[in-house]
Amino acid sequence: MPLQDVSGNGIPDFIDSAMVIFDHVWSVEIVQLGYPAPPSIDGTPVEVYNVYFSNLPYYGLTWFDKEIPALPGENYTSYMEVHHNFSGFYSPGLSGLKVTAAHEFHHAIQMGYNVRSEDFFFYEMTSTWIEDLIYPDINDYYQYLDSFFREVSNTSFDLYNGTTLFPYANMLYIQMIEKQFGADMVRQIWEKFLSVDLAMEAIINTLAQAPYYTPWQESLNQYGLWLYYTGDRAITDQYF
Fold first, then answer.
1. Cis before residue 211, ω within 30 degrees of 0?
2. Using one digit for the tens of pLDDT, what is the confidence trace for 180-226?
3. Residues 100-124: pLDDT tens digits?
4. 98 versus 72: which is more confidently predicted?
5. Taking a C-beta distance cutoff of 8 angstroms, is the pair 206, 193 a contact?
6. Sign, Cα dihedral of 138, 141, 143, 149
């Protein structure tokens, strides 16, 4: 971890910056977007969330901790572990910390929405989308797009097997519906997790309800159109 302490407050400047970044992420995801704070062991929202810095080989991880009997379904308390300096990553330094904070903190929120392994594709889609929503100038997700466009024509929309990066780039679908209907629609999809069995049901049911009234097949066809008009075919101020 960079130990420089220009402020002279006895805390490395990197950690001072991290506190500002995580406070901002909390403000956007909870206060502005309306998601509940990550759950505590009694099912109520936490007031403080634990983040640890280490030399792990990833940007960050959100760890399951204890199951929460007070909430319906399967839900967990959690804590976060993030890289100690983000050196050598696609988005290095504080840029890496920013997108990691946004991404992993939403995973912590998701653990209060009924955890199901078959829905993990939507966990990664949402967390990657929210990186770009909070920090649109970093674009860390660009690193996933080359392989995504090679796979998209023969890969299931809800693919998640723990090895593919497809769901991270598939955040483009959420980026599309956010541009069409607003960011609140994404939170409404998550709220459906409490009453349906699968993430795909939550997506389809939310699309069908007022004020969207969009059949899933139509939305998927629109996604194909949006994906087509990228690269050399991009049209200024339309699609992505």
1. yes
2. 999 999 999 999 998 999 999 999 999 999 999 999 999 999 999 99
3. 999 999 999 999 999 999 999 999 9
4. 98
5. no
6. negative
The pTM of the full predicted model, rounded to 2 decimals, is 0.94
Whole-angstrom Cα distance, residue 188 to residue 212? Answer: 12
Q: Note whether 186 and 126 are within 8 A (CB).
A: yes
Classify 76 as helix, strand or coil: strand
> Which amino acid does the sequence have at 216?
W
H or E element, residue 149 = helix 145-151
Backbone φ, ψ for residue 188 (5° rounding): -65, -35
The residue behind tokens 């209907």 is: 181
What does the alpha-carbon distance between residue 164 and residue 205 come to, in Å, rounded to a whole number?
27
Q: Cα(236)–Cα(77) distance, rounded to whole angstroms?
A: 44
Q: Is the pLDDT of residue 43 over 60?
A: yes
For residues 176 and 225, give the distance between their C-alpha atoms in angstroms, rounded to a whole number: 11
Task: Name the token pair of 101.
Answer: 């904070």
Q: Rounded distance, CA 102 to CA 26, Å?
A: 8
Q: Please, which residues bridge with residue 64 across strands?
A: 78
Q: CA 149 to CA 126: how far, in whole Å?
A: 19
DSSP structure class, residue 83 = E
Sign of torsion, CA 52 91 9 6?
positive
Residue type, 151: E
Give CA–CA dist 230/225, Å, rounded: 9
Q: Give yes or no for a contact between 184 and 163, defined as CB atoms under 8 angstroms apart.
A: no
| Token couple for 88 | 């050598």
Q: Where in 55-205 does DSSP place strands (E)? A: 60-67, 76-83
